[in-house]
Design a protein that fits this description.
The chain is mainly α. The protein is 87% helix and 0% strand. The longest helix has 52 residues. The protein is rod-shaped, with a radius of gyration of 23 Å.
Length: 146
Amino acid sequence: MNELYDISNISNAIHLAVAPVFLLTGIGALLGVMTSRLGRVIDRARLLEGRLENAAPEDAASITAHLGILARRAKLINLAITCCTMTALLICSVIALLFSGSFVQFNIAIPVALLFILAMLLLVMGLLWFLREIFIATGSLRIGPR
């Protein structure tokens, strides 16, 4: 009978931990998009830095201004990635607490709630930084001839 109780506890712990795992999957997808955008910003900055060395003085000011925008975008994406990564770490902590709480005799409700709230706040901050970067990217977008 004791073995059945232990299996029931493990099953319950797994059920509790499934929802945060799905959240981790979504955060992983967001991080993939963000790192891809950061890579594109870095590639574009390297290209413009190469052009800057041989640019005419009238083109150098435009390239320098564009490099400034790219640097700002990279900083915002970095902040977004940092917040989302910290969110993922906190969600992993929630999963660990939910699972270990089935075996340890202490109330995990408050630590789990606090970690989850902190994780959601960091996720919101990360998404806001990411949204700000998108606004800057679309605001500096030029389509067609100059």
